[in-house]
Design brief:
This protein is α+β, with helices and mostly antiparallel strands and 352 residues long. Helices cover 39% and strands 12% of the residues. The longest helix has 19 residues. It starts with a helix and ends in a 19-residue tail after the last helix.
C-alpha cells in the first residue's frame, strides 16, 4: 500500500508538468507551399595547412583537428597511378594494390588483418589514373603502429603467388561480369572518346589482366612503390612535430630501389573528334533489363583555378545524393530514372 501511495505521489507532479509543457497549436496554418527562409550562415573555418619534408624528399601536409583523438593519413604515390601501366598490361596497378594488404614482411594476409584489428585501425589501398593511395585511419594512440603496418605494405609487400593468382582470377571474373553491365560498358566507351590514344582512356580487359605475371607485380613494387614524388597528408589530433616524427620513423629511411625512372605520361591534347561536335555511340545489349546513359565532355585539370568553384557547382548539380538537381528532378519529381549524378574528374594532365 505504501508503494502505491509513493508511486501516485511521484506521478501526479510529472503529469501536471507534462500538461504545462504542451505546446499550443499555431493560430494560423503555415503556408507549406512557400519555401522556408534559410537562417543566417554559420561561420566555416578551415584549419591552416602545415607543410614539411623528410630528408628523402617525401612531402608532408597536415591539418590539425583536435576535436577527437583520431588521425586520418593518406600516403600518395604518383608513380603507382594506373596510367603508367605499360601498354598491354592494364590492370597491373589495381592488382598490386589489392595484393599489398595480403601480407608484408613476415606477416601473411591473416596476420596483417589481425594486427590491424588489434589496434582498431584500417588500411585501404586505391588506385586512380594519377596515383596509388594508401589510406590509414586510427586513434591517435595507435597511429604509430598503424603507420608501421602501412610502411610494411608499401616498402616490403610479400606478394605471395597464391594470392596473386586468386586476385587475378577475381579481376578476370569481374571483367566478364561487367560485359553484362550497361553502365560499365558505357563508361568504357566514354573514356575512349574523351582520351583517345592516351593512357587516361585505357582500361583493363580480360586479355591485359590474363597477361600479367608475378614478375610484373614484383617489378611494380620495386620501381613504382617509390618515394619519388610521394606525399604523406594527414588530418587529425596531431601537431606538426609529432607528425613529422612518426612519419620519419617509418618512412625516413625509404629510398628508391631502382635508379630507373618510369616513363612520364605523354602530354595530353584535345581530341579533334571531341572538338568537332556531338558524338553518339549506341551499345546494343539484347536482353538487358536496364539502360544506362553516360554523357561527358573535356573539363579542367586539378591545378586549374576554377577547380574548387566547379567542385561546389558539381555537388549541387549531381553529386549530392537525392538533394542534387539532377537526381531530384529525374528521380524524385518525374520518376524517369533510378538515379542521376554528375562527376568532375580533374586529373593531372586533363579532365572531364
Amino acid at each position: 500500500m505504501k508503494r502505491a501511495i509513493l508511486s501516485l505521489t511521484l506521478l501526479l507532479p510529472l503529469r501536471a508538468r507534462a500538461q504545462q509543457d504542451v505546446v499550443a497549436p499555431p493560430a494560423t496554418e503555415p503556408d507549406r507551399a512557400a519555401a522556408v527562409t534559410p537562417g543566417p550562415a554559420k561561420p566555416f573555418k578551415v584549419a591552416p595547412l602545415e607543410e614539411g619534408m623528410l630528408e628523402n624528399g617525401v612531402k608532408l601536409a597536415l591539418m590539425e583537428l583536435h576535436r577527437m583523438p583520431l588521425v586520418s593519413v593518406s600516403i600518395i604515390l604518383p608513380l603507382g597511378g594506373s596510367a603508367l601501366d605499360a601498354r598491354g598490361k592494364s590492370g597491373l596497378a589495381p592488382l598490386v594494390a589489392a595484393l599489398m594488404t595480403e601480407g608484408s614482411g613476415a606477416m601473411n594476409g591473416r596476420r596483417f588483418a589481425e594486427a590491424l584489428d588489434d589496434i582498431g585501425a584500417t588500411i585501404g589501398v586505391s588506385v586512380s589514373q594519377d596515383a596509388l593511395t594508401v589510406a590509414v585511419f586510427a586513434a591517435k594512440e595507435n597511429i604509430d603502429k598503424a603507420l608501421g603496418l602501412a610502411a610494411q605494405a608499401i616498402r616490403s609487400p610479400s606478394l605471395p603467388q597464391a594470392d596473386f593468382d586468386r586476385i587475378k582470377a577475381e579481376m578476370i571474373a569481374g571483367l566478364q561480369q561487367e560485359k553484362g553491365d550497361p553502365g560499365g560498358q558505357a563508361e568504357r566507351k566514354l573514356a575512349l572518346r574523351l582520351y583517345p590514344d592516351h593512357p587516361y582512356g585505357a582500361a583493363a580487359d580480360e586479355a591485359s589482366v590474363a597477361a600479367l605475371t608475378l614478375d610484373d607485380a614484383k617489378g611494380f613494387a620495386r620501381d613504382r612503390l617509390s618515394p619519388r614524388g610521394a606525399v604523406v597528408a594527414a588530418g587529425g589530433d596531431l601537431a606538426l612535430p609529432e607528425f613529422e616524427a612518426v612519419v620519419a620513423k617509418h618512412f625516413g629511411s625509404w629510398r628508391p630501389r631502382t635508379r630507373a625512372h618510369p616513363p612520364a605520361l605523354p602530354a595530353e591534347s584535345a581530341d579533334p573528334a571531341v572538338q568537332a561536335g556531338l558524338a553518339i555511340d549506341v551499345i546494343d545489349m539484347p536482353g538487358s533489363l536496364q539502360s544506362a546513359i553516360r554523357a561527358g565532355q573535356r573539363g579542367v585539370t586539378r591545378d586549374d583555378p576554377d577547380y574548387m568553384p566547379l567542385t561546389v557547382m558539381n555537388f549541387l548539380l549531381g553529386r549530392a545524393p537525392i538533394l542534387s538537381r539532377l537526381d531530384h528532378n529525374l528521380r524524385e519529381t518525374h520518376g524517369w530514372a533510378y538515379g542521376a549524378r554528375s562527376d568532375l574528374n580533374a586529373l593531372k594532365l586533363a579532365g572531364a
